[in-house]
Design goal:
mainly beta, 14-stranded antiparallel beta barrel, globular, about 0% helix, about 60% strand
Length: about 300
C-alpha cells in the first residue's frame, strides 16, 4: 500500500518569506536559495507529500530597497483510506507557483515602510487554468528599529492579504522583536511568536508558533455522491504549528536546518463557493522538517 510524506520548500531556513501561504517576520532573510523536506506523521490517515524550489533576490540589485523572488511547490496527497467512500483523485496533485516583489524605503526616526506584492497560482492543473487559480497576495507594514549597545529591537505594524491562514483573507502583521543579548532574541506577535537562540557562529535554535496552510483550486469537475459535478472546488488545509528548530551553518554560504513540530487546530476540507462540501476531520499531528539553503550573495 502506498504511503506518502509531506515536503516543504521555503525561501529561508531561519525566517519564512513566502507571501502567498507562508510567513512574514520582522527579520526577513534575503538572497537565499532553499530546499526543505518535511513529514506529517499522522494527519487522520491523510498522507501529504510536497516538493518545492525557491529563490529570493533581495539586495543583488544596485538598489537595496527593492527585492524579488519566485518559488514552486508540488503537493501530493494520498487519500487511500478515503477512496473507498469517494474518488478524490482530482486533488492528488497540487501545484503552487509564486512570484513576489517588495520595496523598502526609510522614513523618519528609524521608521521604514515595507510594501510587498506577491501574485501566485495554486491549482490542480487538471484542466485549463482559470481566474479561480490565481490569488493576489500583498502586504504593507511600518517597521521601527531601535539599537542600544548593538542590541536591536523592532516593532512591526501592518496588514496583509493572502492564504496564510487558509482561505485568502486579510490578516494583521503586528509584532515586537528584541535582542536580549548577543545570543538570545524573542519575537511576539501575529503571525509569528518565537524565541531564537544563537549557540555559536555555526549553531542556533528556535521555538516558534506559526500558521501553516494550503489553499488550492480544482478547475476540473469534481463529482459528488449525488452525481452532482462541481467546478472550481477548493482544497483548504490550515493549522497552527508549534515547532522546535535547529540551524547549522557549514560555512558562509551553506546552512541546514531541522525542525520538529506539533500541529494544533488543524483542518482539511473541500469547499465550493464558501460552502464546505467535505470535512476530512483532520487532527493534531507531529511534523518533521529538514532543509538546506545557499546564500547566493554571501553578504
Amino acid at each position: 500500500m502506498r504511503k506518502h510524506t509531506l515536503h516543504y520548500l521555503t525561501f529561508s531556513l531561519v525566517s519564512m518569506v513566502s507571501y502567498g501561504q507562508k510567513l512574514f517576520t520582522t527579520t526577513d532573510a534575503g538572497d537565499v536559495m532553499a530546499l526543505e523536506y518535511g513529514n506529517y506523521l499522522n494527519l487522520n490517515d491523510i498522507q501529504l507529500e510536497s516538493k518545492s524550489v525557491a529563490i529570493d533576490f533581495t539586495s543583488l540589485l544596485e538598489s537595496s530597497t527593492f527585492g524579488f523572488g519566485l518559488g514552486y511547490t508540488n503537493h501530493s496527497i494520498d487519500f487511500e483510506d478515503y477512496d473507498r467512500f469517494h474518488d478524490y483523485s482530482a486533488f492528488e496533485e497540487l501545484h503552487s507557483v509564486e512570484v513576489f516583489a517588495r520595496y523598502k524605503t526609510p522614513l523618519v526616526n528609524n521608521w521604514d515602510l515595507n510594501l510587498t506584492v506577491a501574485p501566485y497560482l495554486s491549482s490542480t492543473f487538471n484542466d485549463a487554468i482559470s481566474s479561480e487559480d490565481f490569488v493576489l497576495s500583498y502586504a504593507a507594514n511600518f517597521t521601527k528599529t531601535w539599537d542600544k549597545d548593538g542590541l536591536k529591537s523592532t516593532l512591526k505594524l501592518g496588514a496583509g492579504y493572502g492564504s496564510l491562514f487558509g482561505k485568502p483573507n486579510f490578516y494583521p502583521l503586528v509584532s515586537y522583536s528584541k535582542d536580549v543579548n548577543k545570543k538570545l532574541r524573542y519575537e511576539i506577535g501575529i503571525p509569528v511568536t518565537g524565541v531564537f537562540y544563537k549557540l555559536n557562529a555555526q549553531s542556533s535554535f528556535n521555538l516558534k508558533v506559526e500558521p501553516e496552510s494550503i489553499y488550492t483550486n480544482n478547475t476540473s469537475g469534481f463529482s459528488m455522491e449525488n452525481d452532482a459535478v462541481i467546478n472550481n472546488s477548493k482544497l483548504e488545509f490550515k493549522a497552527i504549528k508549534l515547532g522546535l528548530g535547529y540551524q547549522f551553518r557549514f560555512d558562509d554560504n551553506w546552512s541546514t536546518s531541522f525542525n520538529m513540530g506539533y500541529l494544533m487546530a488543524s483542518e482539511l476540507s473541500l469547499s465550493e463557493n464558501d460552502n464546505k462540501i467535505y470535512d476530512f476531520g483532520s487532527k493534531e499531528s507531529l511534523a518533521l522538517n529538514i532543509g538546506i539553503s545557499f546564500n547566493i550573495n554571501n553578504k
